[in-house]
Amino acid sequence: MLSRRLLPTVFLAIATASLTPRAVVAARPNVVVILADDQGWGDLSVHGNLNLSTPNIDSLARDGALFERFFVCPVCSPTRAEFLTGRYHPRGGVWNVTTGGERLDLDEKTIGDAFKGAGYAVGAFGKWHNGTQYPYHPNARGFDEFYGFCSGHWGEYFDPPLERNGRLVRGRGFISDDLTDHALAFIEANRDREFFCYLPFNTPHSPMQVPDRFFEKFKDADLKMRYAGAEREDVDHTRAALAMCENIDWNVGRVLKRLDELKLADDTIVLYFSDNGPNGWRWNGGMRGRKGSTDEGGVRSPLLLRWPGHVKPGTKIGAIAGAIDLLPTLADLAGISVVPSRPLDGISVAPLLRGDSAASWPDRRIFSHWNGKVSVRTQQYRLDASGRLYDMTADPGQEEDVAAERPEVAAQLKDAVARWSRDLLTGLRQDSRPFPVGYRAFPITWLPARDGVPHGRIKRSAGAPNCSYFTNWTSKDDFITWDVEIATDGRYEAEVYYTASPEDVGATLELSLGDRRVLARVGEAFDPSPRGAEHDRVRRNGESYVKDFRPLKLGVLDLAKGRGFLTLRATDVPGPRVIDVRTVVLTLVE
Length: 590
Known about the structure:
The chain is of the alpha+beta class. Residues 1-21 have low confidence and may be disordered.
């Protein structure tokens, strides 16, 4: 069973178009979606932060629209799932940011599917964070081109290990610049047809790394605008985050410039937002909460959208909106018919972009959830996760509970939260989905340490699993398992990406699934030093450093369809340790 909710369903009935040149079909806009990672609402100069300058991002508001009350989730993978589907993230099985809980259920269709079905070229360049193994992989979710990484965070931002459509590659230079390079190449390659380009950056998420030319401005900067409880703010962390935000702005400028050079600017919707509140206590407009919180400061995000000739420059939209609205809105603007078999939670806000009055816009409720805590926002009020009610118009910092003065509002919203929680959160953490292996359309399956379970004395290289590797393997009693489901009967070439010191050479590894097994000896030392610390601007907390790993061919396994535990163990340990393990790879060869 690949998904605990895998039901036969057709999620979208999409108007399709043949893959003909733009000039031949009725004009439809290209779409470029740029997503920042851990950038707070306050991390833009357009929102009044004088500590930094973001002129390129700000220009989207000047030349298009700025949403004043746009809401996402408290953390990364849920927001990305809501953007992709137009539905609240628990509906798609997303309940965690790692170890499989970040995966978007396979019966969910995505914005990539919608635009691909309508004849667009569709590509994603950056941090995916909604599943690694096919068919959770972006190449199975409507994105024909993918360059980046599928994990929730990465441990090195300079020349990092990345993938392109399932193949391991080495990035070039600083990761945000490199991702932008590939997005620009995609735009240029598809200049004569409609394209949907998704550019999800992984900054200013930690580790706090940024090129010198951006950091120089901030390394000793006297920050004039500070978090209200200044004693809680790590100023060095803030300086690095702001430098990373200015790097994002530079890359946004590169995208806008290339659209101009290709004479595509007037034909392209450019949308910019972030996935949660700031990843540190820093200036955020006086709002309560940061990343991880369901309060206003944890879930309010920038949303800027430019479409010359269609969205009036300088438009400000005060109506509340959320990540769940982006799929229906972009489909509406592009003229793509979306007929869901199950209701979307989001609505199209295209009428507001086209100039409809927000005064006649109906009030609505937008729910925010993380880790069992739920808050709900209306146009005027927020009921927080503890049941306190705030008038956000009069009290944007959530300082005075008005539940006693507005008992009828508090009661209505408490009832709404209870119903929403019952309908969406029941059983959410009871996640029994295995990791799928073996599709002919995508024969390579990566099973990283993040998705494995260590046994015995084996441990992760850091507390946060996302970019970790397994280490401290010292005994034949130690082993690692992955809960997998084989989709295709066949022969699978097995590899392990390892490091081993010279004194550890000679260990014999066994990889098994059921009664099938292969043995291989570690015959060569490969022991590079961990890297990343040399680029950190502040000490990292919880994330692993990275190192290069070498593939070792283990042999070929004849595997039948079905579910089981793929197990890696050592049958002989002549040295003090076995190996460090980054990933096991199974490739369907016949």
